[in-house]
Amino acid sequence: PIPVTPMHTMSIDSADLAAFPFLYLSGHELVRFTKKEKESFGRYVEDGGFVFVDDCIHDVGGLFATSFEREMSDLFPRRLKPLPNDHELYGVAFHFPDGPPPTTHELNGWGDNLVHDHLKAVTVKGKIGVLYSNKDYGCEWDYDVASKMYLAEDNTKFGVNVLTYALCR
After folding, report:
1. pLDDT tens digits, residue range 75-93?
2. Which of 43, 80, 124, 142 could bridge to 72 as Cys pair (CB 3.0-4.6 Å)?
């Protein structure tokens, strides 16, 4: 068995991918999967795995966003869609009645100067398999409390929702 640590980095085409119920993919550069990576990623998601993907540059038209969405279009044609703001993800642990909470990056104008109203998702058998965000949650969660001065409430609670949903669905 693979030893489970709080953070385990692995290749998307690893034979051990299925041993992990939750994967996190983040970046700000070009996303281009090899044939083997596409097959592995697609199989992982179709077999019930959960991937949270966070665009770490907060840029809808940027390189990461456009290339990742193109990869998803190849893998899951017409399946990456806006996630409704009343989806169960927004109430599984903490309640977010308006959908995805904003991040400091949106509220202070960093990135594309746009508050994203929706996350996107690929669903498999009625459950999220790929959750995609342009909101830069990963960097937001990594910052200290002082960096969240624009937020009415710490959106780290939303991270609890993502993990709870992924591990309990």
Report:
1. 999 999 999 999 999 999 9
2. 80
Strand-pairing partners, residue 24, are: 52
**Closest among 135, 97, 98 to 115, alpha carbons compared:** 135
Q: Which of 97, 71, 93, 76 is nearest to 85 (CA)?
A: 97
CA distance readout (Å), 162 to 50, 52, 122:
10, 8, 14
Which pair of tokens denotes residue 70? Answer: 């193109």
Rounded CA separation 55/165 (Å): 20
pTM of the full structure: 0.88
Interatomic CA distance for residues 147 and 143, integer angstroms: 6
Query: Phi first, then psi: what are they for 118, rounded to 5°?
Result: -135, 150
Q: What distance in Å separates the CA atoms of residue 33 and residue 37, rounded to the nearest whole number?
A: 5
Please state the φ and ψ torsions of residue 94, each to the nearest 5 degrees: -110, 150
Q: How many other C-beta atoms lie within 10 A of the C-beta of residue 74?
A: 11
Task: Tell me the pLDDT tens digit for each residue of 33-55.
Answer: 999 999 999 999 999 999 999 98
The pair of structure tokens assigned to 85 is 């703001």
Distance CA(43)–CA(12), nearest Å, equals 11
